[in-house]
């Protein structure tokens, strides 16, 4: 019958919902699937290593030592941008806490009025006027918030991301407000690096075939050069194309998501209310704008109350009074849905077992309207249990 | 004797998106606070917060210089320097603390820093001690 509550201090990232992986005690945040990211790293590091090992000694001697130096700087910049894009928080919006979710539900019900039984309630949309254009804000059923303008829910990471651009498997992360400029600089610098390596590979092959100096002209193994040329050739088309596409998007202050959905194109559609109608200003805003802080406090400390031994099936009022420490989670609750990690479900089930009775004891002023999932009701009633 | 218990009810102040995605809060006075605080006082607080956030997100020469310098150093400069936005956030935290001490706490209210709630809503908790 006894349930022992153990309180320990944990970092907030350990309790964040969503399908992200965290490393270095919450400093690094990525998506779960990292296979393609490792491929990206392998291709870049592998190709550059071959270039530095086989081409650079020849080119440094026969042309200029500045060539490998510039290549090294460019390579370091590409790696820095890649890691910055992959490891940073793209602009994840935290899920609504129970009180906020309740408040929003109440507002929605007040707005909808009485829906006759059997009829589907109207879709949850809020209209806002932005720069004299009407923009619709959609309700996210997973995060229980009305998404801010330009935010979208990424189903791979299971988070709402602010100014969501797209989920990029090559960097192993979403691209959003906070890391878009790093992503763009990564594609731009990678294009330059690919063109650079491609050019000097061709120069190297030509110089070996038709030596211009009296120095030795042995036809050494050019197998690696051929490999580099192949990798660069195929990378060029995709990366340069992607850079061009994003340059176009930046000049119009649009996201990939908006472009794909055609939010601002078409005759009857709203014009883009976020564009400054000036290419320079749009570019400056996206690339040189302020660096937004992360609103996910990943490394903050919080209390974690966990039950050690399970209670029996029929809870009595004495067992509910044993729940002395209130769940003081300050991050979003682990609302069970199809996306909740499986390890979160038993703790919610255990707390749901404990407290069906306190619901009747709630004073009328604090009576909670029905929420989307019954388990959320259980959590909030545990919070209110402390008052009795 | 009934033990003291704090009942916190929350009032949420929503974001105002009329100027785009810039962080601004609605100055509309919530009806739940009519008996608790002066309308002018509330609007003044929210307006000041809006000004501070607007300053943080302002696209001016300072943000451009900071952006270009950071780009040239591959953003390693932020390891030793605080961003302009972070400096303003500290100012905002101080302002909220000050407002709580001077105005809101004496009336049994508490203004929460929006950064703790995802810059989405500015929560006002009403603490009643029974």
From TrEMBL, chain A:
It is found in: Endoplasmic reticulum membrane; Golgi apparatus membrane. PROSITE patterns: DHHC (PS50216). The DHHC domain is required for palmitoyltransferase activity. The lineage of its organism: Eukaryota, Metazoa, Chordata, Craniata, Vertebrata. It is an enzyme of class 2 (transferase). It is a multi-pass membrane protein. Belongs to the DHHC palmitoyltransferase family. ERF2/ZDHHC9 subfamily. GO terms for biological process: protein targeting to membrane. Residues 312-328, 346-355, 363-375 have a biased composition (Low complexity). Keywords: Acyltransferase, Endoplasmic reticulum, Golgi apparatus, Lipoprotein, Membrane, Palmitate, Transferase, Transmembrane, Transmembrane helix. It catalyses: L-cysteinyl-[protein] + hexadecanoyl-CoA = S-hexadecanoyl-L-cysteinyl-[protein] + CoA. It comes from the Eukaryota. The keyword Transferase applies. Residues 136-261 form the Palmitoyltransferase DHHC domain. This is Palmitoyltransferase. GO terms for molecular function: protein-cysteine S-palmitoyltransferase activity. Its EC number is 2.3.1.225. One of its GO terms (cellular component) is endoplasmic reticulum membrane. The chain crosses the membrane at residues 36-54, 66-83, 182-203, 223-245. Residues 312-388 are annotated as: Disordered.
TrEMBL record, chain B:
Its main location: Golgi. Residues 11-120 form the Golgin subfamily A member 7/ERF4 domain. It comes from the Eukaryota. InterPro entries: Golgin_A_7/ERF4 (IPR019383), Ras_palmitoyltransferase (IPR051371). It is found in: Golgi apparatus membrane. Keywords: Golgi apparatus, Lipoprotein, Membrane, Palmitate. GO terms for cellular component: Golgi membrane; Golgi stack; palmitoyltransferase complex. GO terms for biological process: Golgi to plasma membrane protein transport; protein targeting to membrane. It is a lipid-anchor. May be involved in protein transport from Golgi to cell surface. The ZDHHC9-GOLGA7 complex is a palmitoyltransferase specific for HRAS and NRAS. Belongs to the ERF4 family. This is Golgin subfamily A member 7. It comes from Amphiprion ocellaris (Clown anemonefish).
């Amino acid at each position: 019958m006894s349930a022992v509550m153990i309180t320990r201090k944990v970092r907030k990232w350990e309790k964040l919902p969503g399908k992200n992986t965290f490393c270095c005690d919450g400093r690094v945040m990525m998506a779960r699937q990292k296979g393609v990211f490792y491929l990206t790293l392998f291709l870049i590091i592998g190709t550059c290593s071959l270039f530095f090992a086989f081409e650079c000694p020849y080119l440094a001697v026969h042309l200029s030592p500045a060539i490998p130096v510039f290549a090294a700087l460019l390579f370091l910049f590409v790696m820095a941008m890649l890691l910055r894009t992959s490891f940073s928080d793209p602009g994840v919006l935290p899920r609504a806490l129970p009180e906020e979710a309740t408040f929003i539900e109440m507002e929605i019900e007040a707005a909808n009025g009485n829906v006759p039984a059997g009829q589907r309630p109207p879709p949850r949309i809020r209209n806002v006027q932005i720069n004299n254009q009407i923009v619709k804000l959609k309700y996210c059923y997973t995060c229980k918030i009305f998404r801010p303008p330009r935010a979208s829910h990424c189903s791979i990471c299971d988070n709402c991301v602010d100014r969501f651009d797209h989920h990029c498997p090559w960097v192993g992360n979403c691209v959003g407000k906070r890391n878009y400029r790093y992503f763009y600089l990564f594609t731009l610098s990678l294009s330059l690096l690919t063109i650079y390596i491609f050019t000097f590979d061709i120069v190297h092959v030509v110089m070996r075939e038709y030596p211009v100096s009296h120095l030795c002209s042995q036809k050494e193994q050019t197998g690696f050069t051929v490999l580099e040329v192949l990798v660069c050739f195929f990378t060029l088309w995709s990366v340069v194309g992607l850079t061009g596409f994003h340059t176009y998007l930046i000049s119009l202050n649009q996201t990939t998501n908006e472009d794909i959905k055609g939010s601002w194109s078409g005759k009857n559609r709203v014009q883009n209310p976020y564009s400054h109608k000036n290419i320079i200003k749009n570019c400056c805003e996206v690339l040189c704008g302020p660096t937004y802080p992360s609103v996910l406090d990943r490394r903050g400390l919080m209390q974690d109350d966990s039950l050690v031994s399970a209670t029996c099936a029929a809870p009595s009022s004495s067992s509910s009074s044993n729940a002395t420490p209130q769940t003081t989670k300050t991050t979003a609750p682990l609302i069970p849905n199809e996306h909740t990690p499986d390890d979160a479900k038993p703790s919610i089930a255990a707390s749901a077992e404990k407290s069906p009775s306190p619901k009747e004891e709630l004073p009328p002023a604090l009576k909670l309207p029905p929420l989307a999932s019954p388990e959320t009701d259980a959590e909030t009633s545990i919070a209110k249990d402390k008052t009795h | 004797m009934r033990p003291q218990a704090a009942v916190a009810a929350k009032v949420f102040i929503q974001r105002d998106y009329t100027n785009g995605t810039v962080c601004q809060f609605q100055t509309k006075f919530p009806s739940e606070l009519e008996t608790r605080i002066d309308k002018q006082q509330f609007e003044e607080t929210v307006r000041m917060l809006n000004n501070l956030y607007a300053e943080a997100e302002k696209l001016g020469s300072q943000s451009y210089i900071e952006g270009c310098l950071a780009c040239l150093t591959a953003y390693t400069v932020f390891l030793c320097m605080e961003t302009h936005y972070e400096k303003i956030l500290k100012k905002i935290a101080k302002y909220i603390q000050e407002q709580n001490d001077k105005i809101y706490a004496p009336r049994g209210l508490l203004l929460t820093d929006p950064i703790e709630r995802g810059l989405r809503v500015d929560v006002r908790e009403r603490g009643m001690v029974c």
